[in-house]
Specification:
This protein has 106 residues and is mainly β. The protein contains one helix and seven strands, in the order βαββββββ. A five-stranded mixed β-sheet has the order 1-2-7-4-5. A two-stranded antiparallel ribbon has the order 3-6. The protein is globular.
Length: 106
């Protein structure tokens, strides 16, 4: 069971910006409710996974270059991170779950 630090983006503005204003890190970003992402303006490659309402990974992409647009009409959420992360990435059929860790709630 792999665990990754996850940031949450639920507002239109934070979803539109995605990781654009972030520097490379090992954190991932969960965009909820989202099924369409772009890498316009990105300086770094991204790993992107489309997830359905039950947490099933529908599609997983590695090393997506800048100026690309990806979408999956069946997705309810997208997880993205910088491709420079050393930890394993999702594959189609994996399950994604979110757990609030004790002390992390704000």
């Amino acid at each position: 069971e792999a665990r990754t630090a996850l940031m949450l983006a639920t507002r239109t503005r934070s979803k539109a910006a995605g990781l654009l204003l972030s520097g490379p890190s090992d954190k991932a970003l969960l965009l909820v409710s989202c099924n369409d992402v772009h890498t316009a303006g990105m300086r770094h490659r991204l790993d992107i996974a489309f997830v359905d309402a039950q947490g099933l990974v529908l599609e997983a992409h590695r090393d997506v270059e800048p100026c690309r647009r990806l979408r999956n009409k069946s997705a309810e959420a997208v997880v993205e991170r910088f491709s420079s992360c050393a930890t394993p990435w999702f594959t189609a059929g994996d399950r994604v779950g979110v757990v609030c860790m004790k002390g992390d709630r704000k």
